[in-house]
Write a structure and sequence with these properties.
globular, Alpha-Beta Plaits, 20 helices, 64% helix, single chain, membrane, alpha+beta, transport, five-stranded antiparallel β-sheet, Na+/H+ antiporter like fold, cell membrane, Cation/H_exchanger_TM
């Protein structure tokens, strides 16, 4: 490749990326998941479309797909609120293990007895289509303000269910499950999940301490450090301990997201942008890998049958069984069942049989591709309507406040940058009514193009930006207090981000 060829590739890539970014706005306006647009772009650029780009390297697609999933899981973990995930982590873990097993069993039986497929292909279809997709869940559900425990359960499930399904698809494709038995496979799944999560917890805990103590020369270095830690967690778990790197990176990202790291909002913004880039590249690549000209009517019919089996029968059964110990109301069980979105993960998993040379692997890929397109188009736009009908919307979602933290090393303090959203209950509250911890002060209010030093009687307004100086020992207490007032107003309880006392 010479410089001229590189320039042409850069030009084409930049145009595709810009079109993909602009398409996000239209997909949100239409209520469609953006992955559909990106897959469509890949199809148009592919050999069956006007772009005529020939791409059929399943092994490269498999490797790049896993790298993209690491970035997507990192962004998901960093932006997931631990106080929402912690109470429902047992439910998320059951959905990611027992729920997946139930769904795989349902789909495998339908494919074998109903469609006459071999047991290997039937189990592969079940394993590939059962996991929910982190990219789809994180992007769609964060535009639907549902109750925190529902969002937490769905995000925890999508972050954890990659590990067992990747393992199952790989071992079925290579024939190891049939050779060594189900008991051996179950033990391997438990080992990879548990040790992977513990490794991720260790990496996250050590990294938080190091990043907090490092005074880096530029704010832009902190996001790079966090992203590097995430890849160390994934690759270290996979290479050194032979455990689930996906479980490790998700837990590490949860720990990093929970910690009040320096330049937290800048880090999240950077990783969010990289995650969008990973999603765009992943979906366009998978669209390139597909060959719509080779799709047969029988593949579409099989996709419809398998889609109904996994989305309706398997998903509802897996949620009912997994949620039984937690006594969730039927409205919440129904929403969790329908919100099990498929996306890039099933298509990436479908590249594993292709890379392993499994007979009829190309047919599996085509079926899964059609299934994801059809059922994402059905489920994604219906979620806001369903959440409203089932009355599972979160009334406090609009009041959340954004807080960024920057260290003031020489003073032993931190600078909190606080943005007041339009519907936050901080608006209308006087500075003195915030009841911030001793030693914490609002140093500056930026209102439009004007900045001024407030006094105790200054009334906050929507869209204000505040600079709050907090001694490091009481920084987290100040953050909790600001979040509480943002949600519940001046009469909020002293502790608790949701504006009430916590026991």
């Amino acid at each position: 490749m010479d410089v001229a060829e590189l320039d042409g590739i850069l030009l084409a890539g930049a145009v595709i990326l810009l079109v993909a970014v602009v398409a996000v706005r239209f997909s949100a306006r239409l209520g469609l998941p953006s992955l559909l647009i990106y897959l469509g772009m890949g199809l148009l650029l592919g050999e069956s479309g006007p772009g005529h780009i020939h791409f059929e390297d399943a092994q490269l697609a498999h490797a790049l797909g896993f790298a993209a999933l690491v970035v997507i899981l990192t962004e998901g973990g960093l932006t997931t609120r631990w106080n929402e995930v912690r109470p429902v982590m047992p439910l998320g873990l059951l959905l990611a293990t027992l729920g997946v097993a139930v769904s795989v069993g349902v789909v495998a039986c339908v494919a074998h007895f109903g469609l006459g497929l071999s047991w290997q292909l039937s189990v592969l279809l079940g394993a590939i289509t059962s996991p929910t997709d982190a990219a789809a869940v994180f992007s769609v559900l964060r535009r639907v303000p549902i109750r925190p425990r529902l969002r937490g359960a769905l995000e925890a499930e999508s972050g954890l269910n990659d590990a067992p399904t990747v393992l199952l698809v790989t071992l079925v494709s290579t024939g190891e499950v049939s050779e060594k038995g189900l008991l051996w496979f179950s033990g391997l799944v438990v080992y990879e999940l548990v040790v992977g999560a513990l490794f991720g917890l260790l990496i996250g805990w050590v990294s938080v301490g190091l990043i907090r103590r490092m005074a880096l020369g530029s704010a832009g270095l902190y996001p790079l450090a966090v992203l590097s830690v995430a890849f160390i967690s994934y690759a270290g778990g996979s290479v050194l301990l032979h455990v689930s790197g996906f479980a490790a990176v998700y837990v590490t990202s949860l720990v990093l997201g929970r910690a009040e790291l320096p330049h937290r909002m800048a880090t999240r913004s950077f990783v969010d942008g990289i995650a969008w880039l990973a999603q765009i590249g992943l979906f366009v690549m998978l669209g390139l890998l597909a060959s719509p000209g080779d799709f047969e009517l029988n593949d579409v019919l099989v996709a419809l049958v398998i889609g109904v089996a996994v989305t309706v029968v398997g998903r509802f059964a897996s949620v009912a069984i997994s949620a039984a110990p937690f006594r969730l109301p039927w409205r919440e069980r129904t929403f969790i069942s329908w919100a099990g979105l498929r996306g890039a993960v099933p298509i990436v998993l479908a590249t594993i049989p292709l890379a392993e040379g499994v007979p009829q692997a190309a047919r599996i890929f085509d079926v899964v591709f059609v299934l994801v397109l059809l059922f994402t188009l059905l489920q994604g736009p219906s979620l806001p309507w369903l959440a409203k009908r089932l009355k599972v919307l979160d009334e406090n979602a609009a009041h959340e406040v954004d807080i960024d933290v920057a260290p003031l090393e020489s003073l032993g303090a931190d600078m909190l940058q606080v943005h007041v959203p339009s519907e936050s209950r901080l608006a209308g509250v006087e500075i003195g009514e915030l009841r911030l911890p001793p030693g914490v002060s609002v140093a500056l209010v930026i209102r439009g193009e004007r900045a001024f030093v407030p006094d105790r009687r200054t009334v906050l307004r929507a869209a204000d930006n505040l600079l709050v100086v907090a001694p490091s020992p009481v920084r987290e207490q100040a953050v909790r207090r600001l979040r509480a007032v943002s949600r519940a107003g001046r009469l909020a309880g002293w502790f608790g981000e949701r504006g009430r006392e916590q026991s």
